Amino acid sequence: MNARQIAEMIDHALLHPTLTEAQLISGIELAKKYQVASVCIKPYAVPLAAKLLQDSPVKVCTVIGFPHGNHSSEVKAYETAVAIKEGAEEIDMVVNVGKVLDEHWGYVKTDIAAVQKVCQEEGAILKVIFENAFLPKDYHKIRLCEICSDLKVDYVKTSTGFGYVKDGEGKISSIGALDADLKLMRKHSATEVKIKASGGIRNLEDALRVRDLGADRIGASGTEKIVEEAISKFGD
Q1: Who wins on pLDDT, 162 or 120?
Q2: 3.20.20.70, 3.40.50.200, 3.40.50.1100, 3.40.50.1370: which CATH number matches 3-234?
Q3: If 0-12 CB within 10 Å is exposed, 13-18 middle and 19+ buried, where does residue 118 land?
Q4: Could you tell me which residues are beta bridge partners of residue 194?
Q5: Which of 8, 58, 105, 136 falls between 20 and 30 A from 167, CA-CA?
Q6: Using omega within 30 degrees of 0 as the cis cutoff, is the peptide bond preceding 67 cis?
Q7: pTM for the whole thing?
Q8: DSSP code per residue over 29-93
Q9: What are the φ/ψ torsions at residue 178 (nearest 5 degrees)?
């Protein structure tokens, strides 16, 4: 294990709603510096990211139906097609959580398949975001793993990082990549379906933990800290 291998697991997240263009550019340059797997950017910023990364191995990733998955399937497919045309090579789509909770599995599968079809036609990677914080029953997560395996998506992903829930005292917080969910997703997904852990991965210890639980990619905004810790620990 070395710092390069750690960096190549990271999708550097630039998704906060208040990010300015200057902050987006700074984040993209950071991703280029550490040569991470991809920069995960908001849809409108795909052309900017593609331009800045055109001579870099760092891929352009964007989010579809973000953050709550409530767009219609037609809109998700169109949004995907536009993003790929503008330079996105990887797509992170959010499932329709309400339909998952209703167990309308036909709708859920058709929704994912609409985006998968565009990705397959255009040669883009698809990652399907479950938003596990909104799914209290393991059964829902297991069924999503089965559907994604049937559709042969590239990755299943734990969360958006913006899945805010209330605790018993009314405090709102975001729940990210939980160990139990990563174990469940790895167990119930086909071998060829990879796992992306996202949310709450803030340092090298977190990154190594989720990797050991089966994660192939990591969604993180604290990329600099993670990679610099890896350099200190493992060397380049």
Answers
A1: 120
A2: 3.20.20.70
A3: buried
A4: 155
A5: 105
A6: yes
A7: 0.96
A8: HHHHHHT-SEEEE-GGGHHHHHHHTTTSSPEEEEEESTTT--S-HHHHHHHHHHHHHTT--EEEE
A9: -90, 145
- Under a CB-based contact definition with an 8 Å cutoff, are residues 76 and 129 in contact? no
Task: Classify the phi-psi angles of 123: left when phi > 0, otherwise alpha if psi is within -120 to 50, otherwise beta.
Answer: left
Q: Which residues form the catalytic set?
A: 92, 157, 196
Q: Tokens 């977190």 — which residue?
A: 206
The residue whose two tokens read 């950071």 is: 30
pLDDT in tens, 68-108: 999 999 999 999 999 999 999 999 999 999 999 999 999 99
Q: Which two tokens stand for residue 183?
A: 């174990």
Question: Closest Cα to residue 37, out of 213, 198, 233?
Answer: 198
Domain boundaries, the chain: 3-234
pLDDT at 38: 98
